[in-house]
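Ticket closed. Logging final result for TetR/AcrR family transcriptional regulator.
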Amino acid sequence: MSEQRIDLIVDAAERLIAQKGIFAFSLNELCQITGLSNGSLYRTVKNKDDIIAQIFLRVLNRYQQLDIAISRSNLNDREKFLCHFCYPFFVSAIYRSDIGINHLATNWGLIKHTQPRFLDEVRAAFHSLGHGRKRLMRTLLENDYFEADQTKLKKVVLQMHIISKGSSVVAANVFLPKSRLPIDEVIDYLEATSEQLQWHEHAPKVDRKALLATLRTLSDNNIRIVV
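Final structure:
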């Protein structure tokens, strides 16, 4: 299957979704925009489930870019650790429209008709996420930055994921004012949760201004991820 054809279809679908929403655009409109015949289109994507899966695959690939960008930033290890969990909220508050595909693509009821090969691609990309964060976690353990062992670290990371995901949903809710949950409050929740690790005195300290500056830089560079 031509990757160029898939890219052509997904590019057009993203434009249509931005204009009309995920439920309003039609596959016939995709044919008109891409110049593909109905037969060519349907040999590539069978339905909107396929398209949602392919767009979500792009979201996951962009998250890999985010992983690299955080690792290359000037933040210290502790700030990078927090940055991974702050970013979904921060970017959702700015780009509320981006949240939709992420929620749809992880809802089995809305993607259950996706072709198996597309689901396999998404599943593989999803499982490969977070290599940079995992390396960072190993670094934190190896440098003896906190009292907690690996089991405790995994438990705390899960709690921070829940805060990260939940706060991004709140940020993306168009019926809630942006002032309802400011970024400083999200950082407070994440820092308080991470304190369960019992950080040692020699561990790096968090400079909130540096953290916020990096979040702004990441979003300004258009690495727009909501995971």
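Residues 48-72 form the longest helix (25 residues). No further action required.
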